[in-house]
Batch of 3 targets.
Target 1
Amino acid sequence: MAADKQDLGDSSPFVSVTLDGEQSLASHLTMKSTEMCEACARAMLVFANEILARSARLVPKKTGELVARGFTEGPLLSDDGLQYYAVVGYEKHSDHFPKTSGTADDGTKPKPDHYAVWVHERTDLHHPNGQAKFLEEPYKAAADEYLEYLAEAAKKSEATK
Amino acid sequence: MTAASDIRAYLAVKGITADVNNVPQDVTDAVAVMDTGGYTPTHPHHSGTGTATGIIDRDTFQILLRNKSKASAETAMANIIAALDGITNATLNGQYYLSVFMTTPPTYLGKAQTGAGETNIYSLNFSTIRQRSAGTS
């Protein structure tokens, strides 16, 4: 790369920049970009597992059935191939619970295929251990941390090359 | 004051009666605004302890709605969404909100038993961005 400062008259100074080997540079940047994306995608799954671990501590545990159905997935690629994402949740693919599980203090029985959502959203019910919003709460607490974690993963991928 | 208290006051202005952090068990038809925590507040570099200047709170809340009639529940939910979703730059109960927006669509949670009989229960979740003022927790 070379830079020449030229003067065109009294009032129009400008800098001319010449790039040598731009194809090599573009190729290098593309490769780095891909490496950093893949590092972030892997970090997404690590972070999803961390959210699940924090969430598991908050899941109400009567039989242990719900906490055992926590899962993470990823890194996955969106249909258009432009975005990576990871999934953390409970009741993967609408797992069904036995109809006997999940009787609440008020005698209500939830629809079996919505059990995790039902427990998660019933903030009006008391649980002897655990709580409602057992996934949303750790997610919100870690939201800012998540961006920093991905940025760190991208930096590390650069540093290890 | 929490977001739920501000929202309850605002809903009252709109003609919707709601409880805060409590769902009455002796009636079939009720609306409750439940505090559900929130995201980490944003502090500008110049703010210190003991001052509210420039601090942005990002509280969240949930609406739990009970109604023995599903049709009436849907009408009530539509009224709540119309009142709350998309609020921008408005003073609610004396607090300045930059925005209030729905984060999950209404979710049907099934039947629930009350002292007055069986009812249906629904959940809606919202997020807020609020400018902290003196006296705001």
Note: The longest strand of chain B covers residues 95-114.
Target 2
Amino acid sequence: MSLFARAFNKKPDRRRYLLKDHLGRWINWSIGFRTRDDRVQQAVEFRDGQVHVLKAIPADVDVMLEFPAPRDVMDMIRATPDEILNMVRRGRIVIHGNSVLGTLFNFYVSLLMRDGQLKKLARAREADAKAVAKEAPPEGAHERLVEGVTQRKRSLLKWKPEFGRDPGVSYLRDPYLSDLRLEDFPRLQKFLDVHFNTRPEICPERALLLTEWFKDNGFEETREGKPWVPELRQALAFKALMERRRPIVREGDLLAGTTTSKEIGVVLYPDGVGTMIWGELLTVPHRLLNPYDVTPETVEVLHHEVFPYWIWRNFKEKIREEKGNPLCQQIDDRFAVYFLWKTVALSHTVPDFAKLLAKGTRGIVADLRAEMESAAPGEEEKRVTLEAMITCLEGLEAYAANLAGEAERLARACDDPARRAELEELAKICRKVPAHPAETLHEAVQAIWTAWVGLHMENTNAGLSIGRLDRLLQPYFEADAAKVKDDPAKFDALVRRAVELVACFFMRCTDHLPLIPDIGNYLFGGSSSDQAITVGGVTPSGEDAVCDMTYVVLKATEVLNVRDPNVNARYYPGVNSDAYLRRLCEVNFLTAATPSLHNDRVVIDALLECGHEPEDARDWAATGCVEPTMSGKHFGHTNCMMFSMVAALEMALNDGRHPLLEWNLGPRTGSVDQFESFEQFFEAFRRQFAFLVDQSVEYNNLLGLEHQVLRPTPLLSSLVEGTTRAGRDVTKGGAKYNSSGVACIGLADVTDSLLAIKKLVFDDGVVSFCELKDAVDANFEGNAALFATLRKKVPLFGSGSDEAVTMANRVVALAREEFGRHKNYRGGPYVVGFWSMSNHVAFGNLAGALPSGRLAGKAFTPGLTPQAHASENLLDNVRDVARLDFRKVANNVAFNVKVAPKPGEAHADVVEHLFHYAKTYFQLGGMQMQLNVVTSDTLRDAMARPEAYRNLLVRISGYNAYFVTLNRDMQRELIERAEFGG
Amino acid sequence: MNAMVADAAGEGGAGRVRPLILRIKGNSLDDGPGIRSVLFFKGCPLRCAWCHNPESQRTEPELSFDGESCVGCGRCEQVCPRKAIRLRKPERIDRNKCDDCFACADACPGGALERVGTPATVEEVVEAVLVDKPFFDASGGGVTLSGGEPTLHLEFAGRIARALKGAGVHVLLETCGHFRWDAFERNLLPWLDEVYFDVKLVDPGEHRRWCGVGNELILENLAKLVDSSVPMLPRVPLVPGVTDAEENLRAISSLFQGLGLRRVALLPYNPTWHGKARALGRRVEFKRDSFLTKGELARARDCFHAFEVVA
């Protein structure tokens, strides 16, 4: 440690990193190091540009790192930043106090050890490549495997009259648009090249401009020393940001505007978890998974100008400071039990773009002013809130005007007459929308995009979703089509342009990435920002909603094959046509993994069960992954948390102790030798579950309240119904609907474990609970017979077993009941869903073996998918899943099905099989299904030879990712999923 | 013979073997139109040297051992009343001592030792396959009776087919064609929607040599089926060096043409049966252990150029 101190004190070029800003102020703080046995007790103090080593840890130390043993301290010092994060995850480092300062310390370590860290990373990369090469299929199979994916798009299905037709498809002759291919869109091919060949870069623009504004104008108080109304502060800062951002019109693009100043930017939200990248700033271009570029200027700006400002001004640390690091927060800090998304984002919702398109921002402002005028004299807060919304909408208009100016400038400088005309047209469009109502398809798409950029400058780019794009755009497509419908050539050009516009919009949506610190590569592997788009289903009045634009969006989905936006399709059995469902299945085959398929009837029924109005329930759209939001009316933070149900089970098996965390966390519910019946054990499980629900809900509510102070969202509020009349921000419950949505993880693992305990211990007496528990604790080493019995002789969920389905429904009911007891801080209910992003891998990694026979550290099953060995028959999986009580599951589910087409199987046959599976699953009452149409061999090949598979899409649990960007555990989980052929 | 399988009180009359079901395979896409469940019967009158499902040949239940699933717990050794199991031996079972009591299979935790062939009632079988009826309906699929040889238990198979038919399920029979026509016509044919009929060798002597019985009855039945109203698809297994000899294929081709048949299915040889035979303690005498080459397949297809060849 004294070496560490000297390395800074003696070297001016290092010492300057102790500065907080360009005004010459220092970051003053301290960090302690302690082992559990107290053998190590030291602190480092940073004060006024000097580093001091202290023998004793001061009582008011800002952050303290606790280690199991001295060995772990040494390991940390030598570790790379990603390894440090993994040590935190595995409990080899426990952070007490401000975690942002913990990452600052990592930055300092990295400053000294960077060269060694890079060498280590390079060695790790080599070792990994070797390990993967061992598992890879033989070189000779490579070509055939690649071919198996790439040849799919060679023949496309043509629509046939016997498939049927939805009445809303009024213009397209062949709704499948089977004569259009990527090759017809050179513009898109170029964008895809950029997308796949450009390394994302950390973009400081948003963070810097906002931080500068707050430094000038105050955060807690105004320059005049009055407390800020947070809505107004955020609105003014937002407006300034939108005025000052660089307006960018990209080469060849049909849409103007970007969320970032980089080609592909990692946008930072330092009031969330943006500061987590601090410790990795110097090594992030070299990390194994999803490296980012970062310029030296960006490092300087972030380290000196941005991050120090946010050390205490972020959702997590505010709570730590104000509430004294409550238990509910300590649990979240340890990763193994639940993960609260509100530490990152709140706006998992769908704004009201229909209103924006119909009224323009001017129309909305007029409504807001009218409401302000009618506000009663005492309603000052309402008035200010509405004013904040107006300010934000003006910010959008200012940005659009800047884009128009930029397009005009580019047009003047452009030699190519065709492009010049495009730019002039674009300038005209940006002069008109989003201020005024859109009248053409191009205007509508640009209006949505401009607003989308603005929304992402306000809200974290995690799960904010676009809604029913087909229905939003159909009126504008119809208006365009009516003008040319009698001229076939012009009409064809119009359709082609419609596909191109939607595809440009998709590609614009890929210009930004959420910040994923390396630990996130393990928690949310390969996730983009999960901007969900929804198509199909029924209208608010219950009519068939499939229209021309449904098929246009699907065509864009097919030709691009990109992971984001996340396309979700609603299918209403008996209302939507077979032609539509068949096309959905074809696109899944062609893209290997998208769109995800939803049973509209079942989702709507679940929403109605919550008491929502039928017209609103029928207007739902997927959010982030799969979760339903009632478009434009519902602020439902649908991914407020990822909750491991397995943690409750492990604690029930250990009398309240969490084994991996070695923490006596929950209530004492008895040790396994004390349970006399299965019901007694289930009650113990229920109590642990309830305890964890109480804790997670408490933290969620605290974080929600912190959002109201740190980052209310007036722009988003202006696009959600209910806020105007209430004069209240969405973060404060201004929306018409105000739920919070939970993702419960491990349904199959918990169900199968409970049934194994019930059958083997209590029903059949094959084994004592103690013996079973001992075997579980030993990861089944030394008890192969019991392990085999569990794997082969106990009925599993997904094997076609009534008992297992009954048990699964019991767990579903429990989750719904326990979360249902609570209200959120906005007065809304908690609803549950069963999907997992990639947290079934992350949580699984941090859990021991289970009575289901799942081994320690292995992934849980994704979403509510049965275990891979539950049955060789896909239909057993499908039937069991379809029998779950989905009325209790208003936050939706993710059911993965991996289907491997046989070599040489005809295109139409593959589509036909998928169509029959999907159709029957929905008839049986299944809620959601997502396909991976790929073989495990192909995935293994992709692990070893990623360059040939850069756009190979896979469905994780709710979202899409490029397989090659995933961490190895996640890749293996995908490979080990049951693969169903004929 | 084991008392469990001797048909004392059951159907079919005293002294006859009670029908056993090998397994029900759901979600089959290869055994007829649409999504199907395939009901495998145990027992076959033929003894084809290359039989893809050797476990389906004998009518009696058998003990199968899969070394890879064995965890070495030794429970089988403990429970075996005949001391027929030796944990140290790779093949585990002394087949001469074993009397198929299956105590070991019941005790085996990992399913390494398994009883092959389970008695079932018509009702049980029908109930088990009907769970997938929604999939049959959506896809134009149904149930395929296969084996083994379903016609070995004509009355039993007929009652199943009749029940399924009554439930609105499409029923398809896969057969080797070796059955008594009058009983077939009476018991099973009325409930069938389609038949897949295998023809292997035209020369009766060769047929006897490779399949254990002559083919006279088979060819007779083929002709009768052609005259019946039930759609029929003839299938020819392509066994390298045996059935795929050009002379044989040409003879089959002209036989089919003579019967006015226009479509044929060719079934390329599949060597994966070797493992299954070994698990049952059988010697593998037909040694070919690779799939057909492209050339072999093309030559075979040539012989049927006048036909629509379906997969």
Note: The mean pLDDT of chain B is 92.
Target 3
Amino acid sequence: MESTAFTFRETSLPSPPSPSPLGHMRVLIQPNLSVRGWPTSAGSRALEGFEALEDATIVTLLSKAGAFLIGSAHMSELGLGLSGDTVAQLIAQGQAQIGIMTDTLGEARLAAAHARLFGFKPSQGTVSRLGLIGLVPSMECCGVVGRNLEDIVSAMTAISKRDPQDVSMTKEALPDFDSVPSLRSETARLVVVEEYLDTLESREARAFEHALRRIERHAGLPVKQVHLPDYHLFAPIHQVVGSVEASSSAGKYDGVRYGHRTPSARNWNEMYLNSRGESFNTLIKSYLFQGAYFQFERYASFENACRIRARLLDQAREAMADTDCLVFLTRRPAHDPYRAATIKATYDAFASTLAANVTGQPSIQIPGLVADSEDDDLGVLLTGPALSDPLLLSIALHISKSNKGVSLT
Amino acid sequence: MTYEPVIGLEIHVQLNAATKMFCDCPNRPGDEPNLNTCPVCLWMPGALPVLSAEALDKATLACLALNCTVQPESAFDQKVYYYPDLPKGFQLSQHHRPLSRNGWLDIVDEHGQTKRLGIHHIHMEEDVAKLIHETEGRTPISLVDFNRAGAPLIEIVTEPDMRSPYDAVEFLKALRTQIRYSGASDCSLEQGTMRVDANISLRSPGTDELNTKVEVKNMNSIRHVGDAIAYEIDRQRECLEKGEAIVLHTRLWDPDKRITAPMRSKFSGPCVPDPSVPKISVADEWLEGIKARVPEMPARKIERFITQYGLSREEAAAVAQERDLSEFFEAALSYGTPSRKAASWLTAQVLPSLRDQDRMIAETPLTPERFASLLAMLKREDIHANAAKEVLLALLVDDKPPEEIVDTRGFRQVSDSSRLESIVDHVIAAYPSDVQEYRNGKTKVLGFLMGQAMKSSEGKANPKVLKDLFARKLA
């Protein structure tokens, strides 16, 4: 398993550890993050054989902070969903302390939940996207998974830096991850969304109830309820906007400059059609078709989706006005993201994580807090207001520490 | 049945910014193919666009020069289509929220009436790569040159206010002058820094209807734009007279056959907001800074030249048509050259030579100082006018001081009457019968005698001094 789980392994030995923020932390990445000279296929035939020309900004920042990039693992095609992904498994095995995973629908957090790890998606615009071969620019970002939350905090301190080459980063001050240990999380105010509770299947509802009691009892944090009237719209809005952006940004895969090019084509039009047709799997193809459909045939629906997205941002802000974070379950036991092969199955599996991608808010998966009747760790997901990343991590640390030594069931 | 043509233009202007629009590659499309490329303009995976501040400055300058209102907020969209000149499958363009709106230019139409023609909006966009179609043996091949991909453009979309090819030509001339003045672009159709598409439809005179239009492309001079529009008006009129419907499509102007022919249109899709290029919010102080960079524009400059320097309207218009020439003119005046003299020499001598050589005045060794000293020599009668014209031609190609050119080429005029007196005496002695005729009242003979004297001075004699000498000696 170990040898086939990697797509690339760095063979040169790490330089002797010198005093640096990340010591010689071992970091595993996905082949959609550019490291000069590494195979960078982003899990797609469309990038078959492509080697990155320059380092991604976060790769530079990690290396500068003393981390050691051990290689890359398998990923889903272009980072959509978790089909074929091996990063979290390798981290769980101890191959590396942290893994960098693109989080578009919640991949980093959901994979972490499956492997009983921590998984963090930072606020949109706090980590440079330069060198990330993505699919949905306005929703995806580099997430971090790891066994220890402290490692994730250290990694975030290193990679959340301003990059003049990514002008889509936030104009606000970047979060101060050094402040995490000093923040007062013992009085944090947690809430659950009532409309979310309505969506839970009975097995999930029981497990969630159990998790909330545990947080109240052990961490001493009472959990209240709040309304987010349009909660049910997060998934459709993610689907419409996400697929339209994907359709545009995957337009560059034409088989001309890199990647798979069809051996049979009589003219360039056929070359495009065949190369693209042979490159993408069914999930990506249907996602791109869907995006093209909204662009070309239902543009008004796309515009509506953009407007509703703005409204959802307002509602999420309002729901959090007097609280520090929202609480969800990360996993849905009846919906396996590793087996999801259709858009619907994929979106069903990511139902509770994708809201944070729509709003750009920070979100963290915490393991070991909740098991369902089949003893499955479903993971607890906390989502905070935009740019509240350090407080969110501090709350997660507090909850997780207070839970230590308590058995799951 | 008579028809009224309704004409609107879409004009792409390549800004003369140093770099491309979203990367640091040099904005030099004419270099060796694919020299000026990087991961951003080749749209390699993981690359991100960063809008060039200079491109935004120059685009805004051009908008102000065309009397447009710069919008407080504008944004880039992805114009989606698939074609080999566009490797990322979309072009970054401001479709939904353009940089500026509601501009205008005044022209004088063919009936001598001043006419204000509207500009609907101006937006920024990146240029696409250039396709070169060749054959390799008998196989047709297409080559792509990415030097132009990502070059900074503005697109000026006019209102359908033009009613004749003449209007369109005058509009383009005015637009070219304004943008050149602003310093944002050279606007040369010949060099490809300006490209014009014309939309043409016909309607019954006196109605407001906008009928199906036909787009005409591929005109590589302003004159061709006029010719192509005139052809297209006739073509559509003939169609309508035969009872054929006009179909929305694009035609290419063929400059050799002087006709338009239908072309296969590119598949063009929708425009979605781009998530990676931030929207542009215009701060007041920034806009004031750009406004301060807008120079005095030709219409105002012409009026000032008339009142301040006493030029005729024609002289003022000729001197002010190009910013560099007008600045050259005023610089020459600072050396004491009389204004009308400077204007007439610039328009009658310098401009035609520059046009012949296809050069800008700044590209020649002629400086305002050298120009002024030539006119000063003319005034001092060191040289005469014909010689001055010769010297001026030399000054446009030779950077030696004007005095040296005058001396080495023997243009210096002889005004010294003691030197000319002996020549006059010699001519009087050599042509006694002509002298006698003159004295008998046949004054026309003086021309012949002057000619002989001039000849023996090898053309260098000051004619005024010669004439005085003859008058005195033959009296």
Note: Residues 357 and 426 of chain B are 45 Å apart (CA to CA).
